[in-house]
Every structure is written in structure tokens, then in C-alpha cells.
Amino acid sequence: MKKLKYNILAFALLLSSVVIAQQTPASKQTNAISIEGATAHLGNGQVIENSLIMFNDGKITFVGSANMKIARQGKVMQAQGKHIYPGFIAPNSTLGLVEVDAVRASDDADEVGAMNPHIRSLIAYNTESKIVESMRPNGVLMGQITPRGGRISGASSVVQFDAWNWEDAAIKADDGIHMNWPSPFSRGRWWLGEPSMLKENKDYKKQVEELSTYFAESKAYQASNKSPKHLPFEALQGLIDGSKKLYVHVDAERGITDAITFTKQNNIKHLVIVGGYEANKVSSLLKQNNVPVLLQRVHSKPKNDDDDYDLPFKLANELVTSGVLVGLENAGDMERMNARNLPFLAGTCAAYGLDKEQALSLITLNTAKILGVAAKVGSLEVGKDATLFISEGDALDMRTNKLEKAYIQGRDISLESHQTELYKRYSNKYKN
Q1: What distance in Å separates the CA atoms of residue 334 and residue 265, rounded to the nearest whole number?
Q2: pLDDT digits (tens, 9 = 90+) for 40-56
Q3: CA-CA to 410 of 20 to 30 Å: which in 201, 239, 245, 258?
Q4: Could you give all domains of the chain from N- to C-terminal order, each with its CATH number?
Q5: Distance CA 45, CA 366 (A)
Q6: Phi/psi of residue 416, each to 5°?
Q7: pTM to 2 decimal places
Q8: Termini Cα distance of the chain
């Protein structure tokens, strides 16, 4: 009898795992598709009214006006009154690395130790995550899967959100290494009775020197016979030869300035600032050194008492106006669930100074450029992946962001998720 109970329990667990599994990845595109009549937002600032978008074998083959006399390819979809967008990209995200915060076995966001440049987030990426699946109904079809923790967290990778495994998902593996820059300031420890106001971090100089020493040791290793093999130092070589970017997570003005100086001293070719709350104070320095910014979550409160109440909303406009390449990221509390709100962050930026198409670029082409994948994704252009979607209305407005169809690399993907199933289940509860 006891054995029977165990068998029943095991069967129930197996059944539940099958029921809650992610939608089966869509089949490879086999027939050409033409979408006619929609307003196409290309992601590069251009808009085509009454557009014609065609794609085949997972690649975009035509982008232009539907008024042109050109043969339509394959299945023709009429989309008058609707809008077409390139798939949105969520950078600096832990999507697929953590499923349930309270379940340690489902948390692969960080590794033990302070210096982990050799850790690869890609191999821990869970393509069957129910959270990843819930991004797609809002048009977030790709992301940069990023490790957390330590001083040097590890390497991120860019993936698309419809795959069987991490190998299938990868758009660009190990695109860069993430570093958490020491904070020049710290807040008082209230639990010890200290004032909660900001004060100088007395260990800041020492912490920066530790990073410099670590990189100096890496250079010495590269110049040696490399025996015994040192995996962390091997991983840093990509920053020197330009095959990887250094993503520095830093908010303070002084920290941003010191990070730029650090990269110059260590001959690091590509620097990206992540967070950048005070980046507007050094925008000229960022532009001068061609340093882009993945800007912190727009929907947040000002951090300093003397900041404008709407500073987080208008930061993107200030940086773009200064000539800095800007993308949006959404790290913070509940970041995995909030990643679906990425288009609405861009919508807020449009409400606070940016042109609507400029705001769209913050989560499409600009981000693709920053992550080094603009040759494949980020805009609706011939030769790029057919990763796009059709919305009933403005995709940057939560009231009208209603996806009708979505494609990843030409595959007609499912827009169902656990949330949409619950919506359908309970939407009719009080109608009977």
C-alpha cells in the first residue's frame, strides 16, 4: 500500500511537470510570409505607413511600401490598422537563471567567489522557464542573460525566447563580462544607530586597486607560457582583443569617470555603463570616449534628496540629446517578472522628451548595437532575422500593446503563457 502511494505521488509530480512546461518551440519556417497594410516601425527611427514586410527561411527579404508593384511572397496576411515592430530586447536580465527565488535549486544567477570572469551564464539558461515564456505576449522576444554577484560576475549571452535548449537559444554567446564597480559612497548602518545619509566609502581606493592588480596579473599571465592554465585570466583576454565587452555596473558620477579611466589604463576596447543613474553629469565624457549606457529602470524613484522628481523619466532624453548611445534595462526588485514591462519604460521616455521612434530604438536597435548583435536583430531590415510581431495598437502603451502574431527567426511562435491561460480561465467567471 505504501509503495502504491509513492507511485501515485510520483505520477502526479510527473503529470504536473508536463502540464506546466513551456510551450513547445515553433517549427522552422518553411513557407514565405508577406504582411501587408500595417504601419511598420522599423526600430531605426523610420516609419512606413501601409507597409509590406516579407520574410522567408527566417530572414527578412523585403521592407517597403505596399503601394509598390512587387510580387508578394508565400502567404499574404492583411494587417491594415495594425502595427509591426522588431522584437524587443531585454538586456542585463536574469531571465531563465532563476525560476523561484525561494527554491535554491532553481537559482543559478550567481557563483561563489568575487572574481568570476570565466563563469558563463548561457549554460545555466533554462529555455523552459515559465517566466521567460511570459515575456513574449508583450513583444519582449530576446534578452541578454546576465550573471549576478561578486566583483566580476561572469559572462552574459544574448538569446532568443523560443528554443529547445541553450545552444538553440544563443544569438551571441559570451558577448561580454560584467563587473560591479565599487561604490564611492555608502549609507550609514541604521541598525547600529548610524545616520542613513550617504558617506564616503573609505575602502573605495583599495577596492579599485584590487581590480587593477587583478587585471595586471591577468596581463602577466597572458605574456607567460600560460602554465598552469588559469581559466579566469583566460576569459579576460576577450576584453583586450575586443571580442568581448566590459559591462560595468555603476551609478555614481565618480564611479563612471573612474571606470572609464580604468578601461583606458588596461587597454580594454569596449566599455558599456550599466545603470548610469548619474550618467547625465558626465555625458560629454561618455560621448567623447564612445561609451554607451544601458540605463537603469525608468519606473523608479529619484535616489537623492535634491534630484528632480521626474529625473528617472527624463534621463534617457538628456543622454540621447547629448549624443550618447542609450538602451534601457530593467534590473531591480522582481526584475524577471518586470522585464515584460520594458516597452512601457520606453513609452515613459517618449512622454518625457523623446520622439516615439527614438524611444522605440532604446529597446530595439540601440540595444542591439550595444550588445553587438545589430547585424542580426534590432530593426526591420533586409537580411536580418525575422524576429518581429504584429500589435493591434501602439506597443509602447500598455493599453494598446496587444499582440496578434509574433515571429522569432521566422517561426510563428505561441503567445500563450501561464498568465494568459489564467486570464482566459477567470475572465468568464462572473459572466455565467
Answers
A1: 36
A2: 999 999 999 999 999 99
A3: 245
A4: 23-87+378-432 (2.30.40.10), 100-377 (3.20.20.140)
A5: 10
A6: -80, 150
A7: 0.91
A8: 43
